Amino acid sequence: MTPLYHDFAGETVVVFGGGSVGARKARGFDEAARIVVISPEFDERLRSLADGRDGNSDGNGDGDGNEAPAVELVRAAPDADAVGDWIDRFDPAIAVAATDDAAVNAAVEAAALDRGILVNRTDVSGGRDPGSVVVPATVEDDPVTVALSTGGTSPALAKALRERIEAEIEGAGEMAALSGEIREELKSAGIDPETRREAVRRVVRSRGVWKGLQKGRSNGRQEADTVIEEVLNR
Length: 234
Ligand SMILES: C[C@@]1(CC(=O)O)c2cc3[nH]c(cc4nc(cc5[nH]c(cc(n2)[C@H]1CCC(=O)O)[C@@](C)(CC(=O)O)[C@@H]5CCC(=O)O)C(CC(=O)O)=C4CCC(=O)O)c(CCC(=O)O)c3CC(=O)O
Ligand SMILES: NC(=O)C1=CN([C@@H]2O[C@H](COP(=O)(O)OP(=O)(O)OC[C@H]3O[C@@H](n4cnc5c(N)ncnc54)[C@H](O)[C@@H]3O)[C@@H](O)[C@H]2O)C=CC1
Known about the structure:
Number of helices: 9
Keywords: Lyase, NAD, Oxidoreductase, Porphyrin biosynthesis
Helix content: 40-55%
Bound molecules: ligand SHN, 1,4-dihydronicotinamide adenine dinucleotide
CATH class of the largest domain: Alpha Beta
Structural class: alpha/beta
Number of strands: 7
GO molecular function: ferrochelatase activity; precorrin-2 dehydrogenase activity
CATH topology of the largest domain: Rossmann fold
Domain Siroheme synthase central: 141-167
EC number: 1.3.1.76
Largest sheet: 5 strands, parallel
Shape: elongated
GO biological process, one term: siroheme biosynthetic process
Strand content: 5-15%
CATH superfamily of the largest domain: NAD(P)-binding Rossmann-like Domain
Number of domains: 2
CATH architecture of the largest domain: 3-Layer(aba) Sandwich
Strand order of the largest sheet: 3-2-1-4-5
Distance between the termini: 44 Å
Oligomer: single chain
């Protein structure tokens, strides 16, 4: 398995099965994706997502009330023979098989692979055909994301490790923004590449900068400037 990040912005995601697993998978997709959940009944979390992810009953956008809801709920219970037609109807980039009916889940997987679209089968672990993907546990401190898989061996462990990493990467988003800014500045200042790399490497490893960032961006920046000066003056 090769972990990759995939941007579903502007794409459609179809989830078969509106239970707790379907709800969790639907929630995990990018806000910029169109998400359609097909199921005879829906978990409470899906019903509130369908009202707008931001809790705004107008939809998911800027409050003008004109935008489509972030999650669309379609009440239906297709059998194994019918799932292909539903996939054709919505033309998704990925289908998620999250019903409690193994035959339906298997049919979703087969129909998706047949059409060359990605599929996430939630009711099996282990070996997969190419195109059949696993959803990792993720931690996000924008723009930093960590994705974690146990190769399907132990999803509970993936969750437990995710909780540990959550604490570990606290502040990483701020550090990414600061160090990204610094590397651009050093590039435009014409600092030679070896010195620039050394400066950036030291900044991201500096306890002082991490601590400074906890107090605010300008504190972090001051600490970083000290580290950079040391490298430039060597
Ligand atoms: C293969 C995979 C396919 C896929 O779904 O993509 C898959 C399959 C299965 N999960 C099952 C059970 C559980 N899954 C969780 C939780 C998560 N499962 C997720 C991913 C994956 N689950 C993929 C592998 C990921 C990897 O490689 O590690 C996470 C990481 C991401 C997400 O779902 O968002 C999310 C944690 C998110 C977070 O919190 O960060 C819990 C924990 C809990 O509920 O507390 C339990 C109960 C405890 C247990 O059984 O371990 C079962 C048995 C069902 C049954 O017994 O009927 C199967 C099917 C089977 O094993 O056959
Ligand atoms: N990957 C994961 O992380 C996990 C996977 N699972 C697996 O996921 C499956 C679903 O788990 P839960 O959401 O807890 O079950 P659930 O029973 O709460 O939800 C299943 C949903 O599928 C719907 N459904 C049934 N037939 C359907 C059809 N023909 N078309 C569309 N929707 C249909 C049901 O109405 C229900 O809303 C289980 O079979 C289990 O094996 C369970 C736990 C975690």
